[in-house]
């Protein structure tokens, strides 16, 4: 039997680059190889495994089920190889400069601190500027180096990786629920006050397909700032959906409707292809990917 550890690392790296870029030509440019060479490396890995990893759809390549299963393992290997290379050369500790990360204010405040500590341990001379913004900053114009967003970018010069399917639930303060009662069904939510994150109309459109019918009267307070809106929930102004990790970590709030399926939303990690070759940005990108995937 052949194990991953027996494979040529160049073959695995070729597969990983092709999976992340979606084409042999783009993967070849990333790895600074010719397309025929990279194609042979991917074919050699498929031969070793005895499975097809890609299938051609139009002008692009899509991962087969076997390819998808292999992808997460090879990504972990890639991140480990990059850190080993940095450590062996002593570059991790000496990486300097600034990396700008843009993410929502909620993610910036509640999710990123743990990974920022890890980044500081790996590269203490690196400066991280977190752009906490709920609008989509333009990586193409260098408004940020790395973006964490719930929408996949469609610009061809950007690299995007789906790092998780996050889970959200409805939450409210215990003090609010003691006064207003605890909903037992989704239809009960229509009798409650809601705190809006941004435009109430958009929230109503988002919740309607879930069978939660609300109107303007349900939204008496809200904010464009996610942090402010969540603070209003914590202080008892009403109900709102929130990611599981933030909701569970906030004292004084309760999860509602525990039997209801979670609200799933994607988390995309994005950077510019050119910037992906930068040592400092690659290090931060890989550590973010590892943390957010976990």
Automatic annotation (TrEMBL):
The record, for Pfam families, names: HTH_1, LysR_substrate
Q: Which UniProt keywords apply?
A: DNA-binding, Transcription, Transcription regulation
Instruction: Report the domain of life of the source organism.
Output: Bacteria
Q: Where is the HTH lysR-type domain?
A: 7-64
Q: Where are the transmembrane segments?
A: none
Task: Please give the PROSITE patterns that the UniProt record associates with this protein.
Answer: HTH_LYSR
**InterPro entries in the record, alphabetically?**
LysR-type_TF_proteobact-type, LysR_HTH_N, LysR_subst-bd, WH-like_DNA-bd_sf, WH_DNA-bd_sf
Entry keyword annotation includes Membrane: no
Family affiliation: Belongs to the LysR transcriptional regulatory family.
Protein name from the UniProt record = LysR family transcriptional regulator
**Native source species:** Ruegeria sediminis
